[in-house]
Every structure is written in structure tokens, then in C-alpha cells.
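A student in our group prepared the protein record below, which I am reviewing. Here is the record exactly as it was handed to me.
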Amino acid sequence: MKAAQRPLVLLPILTALVGCEASTVRGERCIPGASVTCACPSGQQGAQTCNSAGTYDACQCLPPVAGATGGIGGTGGVLSSGGTTGSGGVIATGGSSATAGSSGSGGKTTVTCSYTEFRLPDTTSGPQHIAAGPDGNLWFTENWGNIIGRITPSGTITEFPIPTAKSFPDGIAAGPDGNIWFVEGSVLANKIGRITPSGTFTEFSIPTASSDPMEITAGPDGNLWFTEGGPGDATTNFGRIGRITPAGIITGFMLPTGNTGPWSITAGPDGNLWFTEIAGRIGRITPAGTLTEFAVPTTAGSPAGIARGPDGNLWFTEGLILDATTTVGRILRITPTGVATEFAIPTRKSVLQEIVAGPDGNLWFTKSAITDSGTYIDSAIVRITPAGVVTECSIPNGVPAGITSGPDGNLWFTESVDGKIGRIAP
């Protein structure tokens, strides 16, 4: 590792491009809009944002977060040292409810919304991605805490430490085998992990060295598919799509265009897998491994999250758009034949991250905005209809990241900076 500081992924960061393993050094080049944490004089956590020049701005100290504090009600189990399996959990409960309105213009609908937040035992653990599990609960990754978390629809949290230290878990998804699968993105790990609903781990090493796995999803073929954004070995370019069977057999498919940073991935309505490339492309791969890439309409676009929509199309976020006059986030819709339509998000300098189809027939995504000084503002959970109408629910004290539809008919999201899990009704 080059530094003890671990990255908080608030916008796609292709770590292989900035020359890092699993942490970001302030003086290195970075992807504009990316963020890492930093220490404030008061001892609280702040954030540094990558500016348009590709370097990190000064540390911005965030205000304290109000809310209920969860208590710890148990101890973790003992993991086998250096082994590939293990179990153990820490249980916590506690939630705080809030009501907020979003004021806006230029295309946003003003609403008053209610949401509930559940604080993690360690608020610096960096909850990142979240997915509905096969057991009726929600499962999420804690990137800094090296933990897989589970939260019930009523808000009871259980945490399971990952056997491999400093694995930096990221994407997570329910598998066809009744287990939960996740990626371990650090160079120290470079694995795909599996955890049973009862908390038993199994880990599978990825054959490609330094593959930097990002996100994972269940495919239509009964396997799991994941993105590899890293450099691989000396004979390969950046970027592969990986497939892993429930038995742990991994196959990699190299992208036709190198150095594009494959990021998010989802199963499409056409029986294929679709994924984003932060260099400005949307990719499609058949279960047999045939790859096709589509350029996004805005050449400076940085596609991030992707989801299958209720209208039979794919929807994805463009995390940050850099052009000569402004910085605007966009939501894009692409048909299975590759025809794309863009919808601009009115907030200037919007940072758009994960997106999911909601139970109400709309798409929901996480959003914040960056001031010229690099401070995150205007954080929200946002709804967009298939026709492109945008409605925002403000999250004043958080920076939402991952989002998913829960088994209880609500939307669930992570707040990476504040160490909380949120729940909001559609």
C-alpha cells in the first residue's frame, strides 16, 4: 500500500489509471469528481475532491451528522487465520427519521419526503453498495471497515468481517444459489467473495493479477458477472468482464477497447449483460462472451451506475460531465439496439452514482453536487420517470452512494461519508 488512507468511492475512480493499489495519494493524478477522505483538525472526517486539473483540492471538513446512534449487541466470531472461509457477526440497531423538502427549478419537482436512517456501529466504515438478499434482508459492503453488513427491513444491523484483511469490498449482489456475492477490489485481495445468509464466507482468487474488480450482478445464465477495471498483467490492456460460476470457476473476457474503465454491470432485458465504461462507453456482452460497445452522446461523459428499467431499456448515470461552460450530470437511456437518449439533471456540478428500478415503475438514483471549492452539497435521492421527469428528495446530512429496491417495497441506500443506511418510500 502507498498510504494508510483508504478511498471513498463517490464517483467512479479507475484506480489503475491513477497508479494506486487501493488508496489514493494526494499528489497523484485522479479522475475529476472523485473523492477521498481526510482528517480535520477537530478529529472528524472530511473529504478531498478531484478537480478538473486531475489533482485533489484541500480537505473540506464536513459538519457533524445528527441522528440516532446504534448500540453494539454482540461480538464477532473467530475467523480462520489465512483461510478461505469464516463467519462471525456484530449486531446493532437504531434509526432516526427525518422529513425534508427539495427546492429547485429548471426541471426539478419540489417535494416533501420522509426517510429513515440507521447509523452503523462504526460511522467511518464507508458503506458503499447495497443489494436485496435472498433472505428478505438488505446486504451491503463496508469498504473501509472490511465488512459485509446485513440490515433487516426493521433496521437491525449485523456485520460480518471479511476473512481477507484490507480487501476493500465494493459491488454486491444476490446470486442464483441463494447466497450473496461481492467483489474484493484491493490488490491485496483481488478476489470474488461469497457469503451465505448465515454468515459463512468463501473467497475465490481472480486469475488476472491486479484486476481491480468493481461491481457484480447475477446473469441470465445462472452465473455471476463482474467488471475488472484494473491493468491486469504486462500482456493485457485495462478492462475485462469476468464471469464466475456458483462453483467458483472464473472466466475473463477482454474488452475490445483498452483503458476504458468498466464499472457497473447489470442483466439486460435482452438476455445479455450491460455495463458502463467511465471513458465514455456502454458495453454489452452475451453469455457466450461476444462484446459490443456503444459511445455515449456526450463525449466527455463518465458513465457510472446502470440498471434495467421497467420500460425494457437500460438506464445509467453519467457521473460527471466536463465541458467548456458547466459541469452537469445526466441520466441516459439506451435501448437494447444501442439508441441513447440523455436527460440533464438541473443541479450544476451534479455527482450521480448508482441507479435502480423502483417498485413504482420509475428509476431512482443517488446524487450530490460539488461546489467550486470541492464541498459536497445538494445531496438527494432522485426519481426519474421513463418519460424523463425528475423529482428530488433532499438528504441534507448525507452523501448517498449505493441504492437498491428492498423486499419491503422501499428504496434502500448507503451514505458513505456518514456511515449510515437509509430507507425511503417510493
